[in-house]
Amino acid sequence: MTRTRRVVGLHILPSSMTVLAICAGLTSIKFALDHETQLAMAMIAAAAILDGLDGRVARLLDASSRMGEEIDSLADAVNFGVAPAVVVYVTMLASSPAGWIAALLYAVCIVLRLARFNTLLDETELPAYTREYFVGMPAPAGAIAVIAPLAAFMQFQTGWWTAEWFVCAWLVFCAALVISRIPMRKMHAVSVPPRLVSLVLAGLTMVAAAAFLFPYILILLLVGAYLLHIPFGVRSHRWVAARPENWEDKPREWRAARRAIRRAGPNRRSMTRLGLRKPGR
């Protein structure tokens, strides 16, 4: 009997983490209303971390369930749609009617994005490689991106990044990325060569240290890095969509195939195409 109670306790762990994430998201709104901006941002970050862990814990414990999926979807709507929008509005756009419209637009787009995500989960005829790409910016990344102007304000104080027009435009931009159909590579799908594992671990150590010493700079760097990775994700998706038979290949084989295609391409800039010859020929 003791063993049965222990198994049941482990199976509710993922849902418990999701509920804690909801509490963190709602508490961020409370801190924003109390003018505790730093704590409000910390609560959004905590919700994002818990959201990243609950699914992995559920798969590890084989505790996935339909109810857990529904709770997770609702939690994402609160934590990454409502909470960031309200925090940014309260702290930076409270006197702007246009700011409230932008905040509403972002929150609604997060809900629409989650609805589309849940719909795609029921699609069984999609190619295997589509499971490694998000359609549009994922909700946690959207939440971190939305608070970037707030992070810039906390780090650098007032500037063009705190202007109402820019913050509103930034909210609309993030909302557009969230509901877009731009393929974005999932971070956990990126493979790391064995020779670079030590370097990656050292980088994660630096990120952990920066989270305590320079949290606002870290947020801005993470948002910038994510936006810069989008063109590479689009390029990768187009390449594998045109060659689905290569999906199971290793990254090294991908790179070799790309080099071979570039060498054989008729539009490749080369000395031959320009009508030049190497010296001595």
TrEMBL record:
Transmembrane segments: 12-33, 133-154, 160-179, 199-228
Reactions it catalyzes: a CDP-1,2-diacyl-sn-glycerol + L-serine = a 1,2-diacyl-sn-glycero-3-phospho-L-serine + CMP + H(+)
Cited InterPro entries: CDP-alcohol_PTase-I (IPR050324), CDP-diaglyc--ser_O-PTrfase (IPR004533), CDP-OH_P_trans (IPR000462), CDP-OH_PTrfase_TM_dom (IPR043130), CDP_ALCOHOL_P_TRANSF_CS (IPR048254)
Molecular-function GO term, any one: CDP-diacylglycerol-serine O-phosphatidyltransferase activity
Matching PROSITE patterns: CDP_ALCOHOL_P_TRANSF
Membrane topology: Multi-pass membrane protein
Enzyme Commission number, as recorded: 2.7.8.8
Cell compartment(s), UniProt: Endomembrane system
Alphabetical keyword list: Lipid biosynthesis, Lipid metabolism, Membrane, Phospholipid biosynthesis, Phospholipid metabolism, Transferase, Transmembrane, Transmembrane helix
Family from the record: Belongs to the CDP-alcohol phosphatidyltransferase class-I family.
Protein name: CDP-diacylglycerol--serine O-phosphatidyltransferase
Organism: Mycolicibacillus parakoreensis
Gene: pssA
